[in-house]
Every structure is written in structure tokens, then in C-alpha cells.
Sequence to fold (965 residues):
Amino acid sequence: MEKLTELTALELGAAIKKGEVSIEEATRAALEAVEQREGELNCFITRTGEQALERARALQAGVKETSSPLYGVPMAIKDNICTKGVKTSCASKILGDFKPPYEATAAERMERAGCVSLGKLNMDEFAMGSTTETSFYGPTHNPWDTGRVPGGSSGGAAAAVAGRECWYALGSDTGGSIRQPASYCGVTGIKPTYGTVSRYGLIAYASSLDQIGPLARSAADCAAVLDALMGKDPRDGTSLDVPAGGLLASLTGDVRGMKIGLPADCFGEGLDPEVRRAMLEAADVLKSRGAQLVEFDFPVMEYMVPTYYIIAAAEASSNLSRFDGVKYGWRAEGYEDLTDLYCKTRTQGFGAEVKRRILLGTFVLSSGYYDAYYKKALQAKGLIKAAFDDAFGRCDLMLTPVAPTTAPKLGESLSDPLQMYLSDIDTVSVNLAGLPGLSMPCGFDKGGMPIGAQLIGPALGEAAVLNAAHAFQMDTDWHKRSPYEKEVF
Amino acid sequence: MTWETVIGLETHVELATKTKIFCSCTTAFGGAPNTHCCPVCMGMPGTLPVVNKKVVEFACKAGLALNCEITRYNKFDRKNYFYPDLPKAYQISQLYLPIARNGRVTIQTGERERDIRIHELHMEEDAGKLVHDPWVDQTKADYNRCGVPLIEIVTEPDFRTAEQVIAYLEKLKSTLEYLGVSDCKMQEGSLRCDVNLSVRPAGSTEFGTRTEMKNLNSFKAISRAIAYEARRQIELLEEGKRVIQETRRWDDNKDATFSMRSKENAQDYRYFPEPDIPPLELSEEYLDGLRKEQPEMAEERKERYQKEYSLPEYDAGQITAQKALVDFFEATVALGAPAKEAANWMLGEMMRRLKEEELEPKDMKLTPENLAALISMVEQGTINRNTAAKVFRAIFPDNADAQAYVKEHGLEQVSDPVLVEHAVEEAFAENADAVADFKAGNEKVLGFLVGQVMRRLKGKADPKTVNEAVRDRLTH
Fold:
């Protein structure tokens, strides 16, 4: 099966069930792709090929008609999701060779669904960044153009799925970290409603915004992963007790009468004309399937980035304080006393972007500044939520760009962090409001780089979001494009 | 000039839940280092706290008993600081919306009653323990205590004397013990207290600059620290100097307080709402349920003991001051012992033995069953009161079985009239002079003769029976 790696996760899962392909064959195909491309892509921090083959053989006997549609499908996991006994580094020096003695609930649930994990994926250090260049383990490269970034922070996940190294991946999204790299790499990714996927075992960046979700080859693949992932977890107090599962089964592609909102403020200044064109074409595809397009103002966009960076940095400054060299991970040498141990370990163990956000967060929580920054940001968060509530009074889903441009060249973004922060404008809003947001491929720019469209739903509106994306993917083939099989299409 | 001392208290109380506040590890005291912990209480990356409902219940019960308003919508906050005993580098506590506020405790010192206002009561987690080993110059961390649930009870600056402070703490201790929410063992650190103290000229309505004293491990230390610190501040002011706002550590050996850190060096804890724990919403029904479960407290119980058991006010007060004594008393009475007898034994022999052994009532081995059995033997005339007192002292340390002890040591009272008669005969024969004296009109020798008979019976006879037998023989 030459094109095995070009299948979607569900197609591969079906082939495994039918006995057309063994789990070991699929795993070997993926490991071959990894072997072949890692030199130029650098998607993985830790590879667990041997364990994967063992697991593949062990799973084979359990193939049943009733097993999960993803049973036996090889995947990989972002390196901020704890995997028992397997190094989990958050792409940071400070965690050293940390091997958690526990498994994240998300990883555990995928394991229960029969996944074969190929290893741990590269990311921006502690998920802070939009390019995967802040990784201690070196940048990941975009499979469509290795001179460009894959986006971030789940850049390793997006590049691995786009680069055909695995069929799907678990990422995390705090301000766009699933959707933006999915967009840059031409894959489909969804950040579900806050609280629907357990955060237990996800090493926190900003606890009130972090959410785990899938990156895959199609909306249907994402639905299948979410069916396994979602659901109340007693180990996460913020996880919601809502019915889970059934998303894949609910995909009909029927969007007749669905109101798709186009918020004018997301199509204004700073948006690349090619991206704008692709958005409007995507809207037309949905319209042609019977959806209704509505335009309205969304005047809270200017608050998004500052609100996000204050809240995220504040929480990060607290969440990352535990990395102090005392208990686990990496410790600096040659310290004189306790304070020196803390200072040297944290100064040398964290990268520049992480330290920038820790300092920013520490500042906004400091006595005398709390009211001016953090408290104001919480108030702005309330306004943003209200604006979304209002918007969902006018439409069922919103369609916006994921990012104002396609993937930039490596090295371009880090020199201007503010510009990098501003490019998060279309994604951070969704985290601040706790909503589901999906990124789907909807075209290419003239340089051949993928463009992504974002579908945003109301809280717990995963089914509608996925169904609209599925409808779009029934009529388009952007999501099937491969950087290695360009001639096929 | 006369000075007035103004004191406020911050009391940390460990809650008696079986498991920790955010995970299911045991709260048991002690244990080998790092054996009572898990990834959650050790703050390992990616782990999350989940609130123990029992902790919320206990905190609510305490808040209700201290006449507080319960904050129906309350939240946890993070208090951030670096220290190796705090593995997350923040303590989960409550700052902005504590679970209870605006309470009141009435205390009594001498004849006077006084209301102490409670500013707030909040929940938080305990930290671990650092042990420095000077031999290898290493500090080791033990995280067993991490996540042990605490409530902190903060009073308004309503105390004026150490006596009031102790009365409040006794009352607080008793209340929490009655509720069963804490065992309040100071020596194990389950009740710890920081004292905020300032002085001002008598009659002034403004507060002076205060200091906060830490490391107060006993009521005695608290009294002495208050006396010391008030004197120190007054001396400073009388010399025209200023009191510096700072935290001071009490040194029990040196009998003095020492500066730890001044306000200028105070840490900025950067409190903010804990994002990992959703706000707690307590319904009126939930609180009503807890209100119904509130037990009868010391005062009500004291009154009831006076009425129901005819105990003197003092005795009733002594017993109801400690929940452990109440439990012991009620169990003994339930086993059939007359209430008055039970109280007498407890407040007499038992308190004496506790004092001798420096034991807290809750730590003694003696059981109500055993005391009830002892009382019953006296009631039935198996042993007399004096013998019973000796038996009590013997069985107290290890709760040796009273009945078995009496049997083994042959202490049963002689009630066989033939034996008594025989002893009387012998005593009369050997003390013919005394018998003659009596017959000559000296009634005083009666006691001597009774004593002689008792000696022959090794003190095991009922004194009344012997008395009658002797008198009988003398007058017939």
C-alpha cells in the first residue's frame, strides 16, 4: 500500500478493521516517513518507535467490528501532555529528562481507543509562541516549505500530520496553538469548548484558557478523536459534566438554513488579501450548500490581544513557578544558596520568550498593578464573552480567518514579539470566551502555502462546527492536499 | 502613662478530614518522609487540584458555629511565593471571597463576658516540612503535610489581655472539638496561632503600630509572648522610639521575640483567582442541612447537665469544657453509672492522674466501660471506695480490666458475717483493755476497735458492717 500515509485516520482505521492492513504495517509506514523526513522537519522531541511496534502487535489481536474507528491508527502527542514513563519536556531545557509517573487523561483515553503513539511532538517552549521556534530542541519546519515555520505552539503536531508522519496528533490550544499551526500546515484542527476535554496531565501554560484537541486530516477525523477525548474527568475540577461522544455519527454535511456570521471587524486592516479572498470563497462554498451568510460588526477585536496576553501571562507566571530546580527536571550547577539555585536554574533553564511572559505576568499581578491590568483584563474578558453571546444571537457559527497571513519564514517573527502577538488576534478571542474553534484548509497563497479558515461555535457547539467543516470538506479537497503528493491533485 | 494592649489573632486549625484538601492522600500525622503524598499534592506538572467536599463542609460548620455569614459564592486564590516546602510555589488559599465572614465569639473571663468579632474564616492547604541535616549540610523536603486542609480564623483586634486571648482559644478549641472538625492538638501543630499586637495610651481610639508574632506553640508561650511583646513596645514608646511594623519570632527558650522581617521586606504574594478550581456555590438547602447537624455546644450542654444530672455548676462546667470529657462522661453514664459518681471519679481521680501523667483526656487509654465497671463494683459493695481509688490508680495507665484486677489481687470486700464475727472476736480478745475502757464509758475507743478489726480483714470489709458488728458486741 504505497499511499497508506495519505489516508485519513478514519480511512486507515476502516482498512485495519477490514484486515486490509495490519496495525504493524501502518505503524511501520509511519515510522518510515518519520525516519525519512525528521531530518528536515524536526517534528518529534522523543520517538517511541520500538514501543509503538510492540503496541501495534499487541493491539492486532483486539481488532473487532465494535472497536473504536481509530483503533490501531498511529498518532503522536504534543510534548506538554504527560505520558507515563515517557519523557515529557514542554520543549524546555528546564524539564530535562522529566518522565512523569502518571498519564494525562487525554493520552489515557486515546490509549483506551486503541491508539499507537509514535512519540512526543515538538512545540514552542511551554506552548509560548506562534512558530515552534522557541523550542529548546530546535525549530520544526513546515512540510510545504521547510524555509517557513509550521506555526505554533503545536507546530510539531501540525507538521507531523501534514508531513504524513502520523495520521493525527493531540495538541493543545491556549490562544490558537492548535488552529494556527493547522492553518499554516494545511491540516484540520479543533480546540473544543473549555472544560470538555480533561486538562489533567496537560502541563499548564494558562489554566483558564488551555484546552487539548486534535489535529488531523479532516473534520471527520477530528470528530472521531473528540469522541474518544471528551467527557467529565473527576481529576479535573474544571471539566464539564456534559454528554460526550456521538460527534462522528452526527456529521451529515447538511448546513441548510445554518446562519454563518462574518464579523466585519475580522476582515479589516492587516488581513492579507489572499487570505481574505480564500475566506470569502469558503463562505460561498457553505452558502452553495444552503447556509445563509450574515455580516455584522464585532467591535471587541481591539481588546483581544492585550486581554489575552495579560491573563495568559499572569497565570503562566504562577504555573511555571514550580520549575525551580528543587524537585525534578534540570538544575543549574554552582549555586551558592537557595536564592542562587532558583535564579541560576530559572535564568538558564527557561528560554527568552518564556522569561518575557513570566516577567509580564509577574508584573501584572504585582501589588499596585493588579487592579490596573489583571482586574481590567478580567473585565474585558467579560465584555468579550458578552460580545460572542450577542453574535450568536445573530448567527449559528462564525467564519473568520485563523491568522492574518500564511506561514512566515523561519527567523522572521522572533525579532518582533509584539508583531507575533498581534498575529494571534483571530484565535485568542475563542479561548477567552471558552468556545469551540476549528481551523480547516481552504486554499493556498501564490507561494503555495496553505490558508486556513476558522469556524467558531457557541459553547458546546462542537457538533455544528464539525458538521459545517465536514460539509465544506465534502465539496472541497484542500484538506486532502499533501506536500508530497502534489501531482495527485 | 497607662497603656492599653490591643491584640488580634490569626489561628490556623488543621481539619480532621481523612484525606487531603485536593487529593485523596491520607492526612495521618507522621509517617516516613514523602509516603503520604502523590503527584497532585506534590504539585507535579500537569496535575490538578480537586476540592475535597468534606473540607468545605467542615469549614462551613466551623463558620456557622462561630456565628459567621457563610459566603454562598466563594473562591480559591493563589498565594505565590518561592520556598522548597511549597512544591507548586503557590499556596491555594482564599483571599477575595473567603468561605465565612463577620462572626462573633463570646468569651468569659472571671465574671465578665466579652464579644470577639471574627473578621473571616478561610480554607487553605498546608505546606511541607524542611529538615536540615547539618552533618552533610543538606536540606531535605518532606511533603507529607502538603495539602493537609487548614482553616485560618482571623479575629478583629478585640482582645486587651492575654487572659482574654486564652479564653478565646479555649472556647475556639472546645467549639471545633464539639463539631468534630479538628482535634486541635497544639503539640502536633493542628492548632497554631499568630498574635498581632500593638499598644496605645489608655483611652486612645487610634491603633498603634503592630507586630505579628509567630512560632507560638502552647497557651503558655502565647501568654508569655504577649506579656513580653507588650512590655517591649511600651518601653520603646516610653523611650520616645517607634515600634516597627514587622514579623517577630517567639523563642521559647530565650523567653523573648526576635525580628524576622520588616514590612519593607514583606513579600508580594501576587494573589489571583485560582483558575484550576471553579467557584464554590453553596445552596441554602446545603447550609440548612449543616445547621441541623450542628451539635449541642458547651454552654447548652452545661445547663443540661445541671438540670438533667443535678451536677453542680462547677462540675458541669469542668466536664463540658472539653469534648473528650463529655464523650467519656456520656459513655460512662450510658453504661449505667450514676451521673454524679461518674462526674466525681472523672473530676477527682481521673483529672489527678491526667495531670500526673501530663496527658490530654483524648490521649488516655482508660475507657468508659472500665470506669463504669469500677463504679458498679463500688455500688454493689464488691469493693469499698478506698479500695476502688487504689484500683483506679492501678488500672489507669494501661486500661487494665478493673474486675479482673480486683479478682487477681483478692480485693473483693469481705461480706461473710462469720468472717467478720471471727475478726471481731480476735480483736476483742487482744484488746481487752480497750473493751473495758468502752464499758467504763469511754466511747472514743470504738474507732480504735473498728480499725483493729479492719486490719485483720486487710481493709476489705465494708466499714459500715464492721462498725455495726463492733458496736453490737460491745453493747450486748
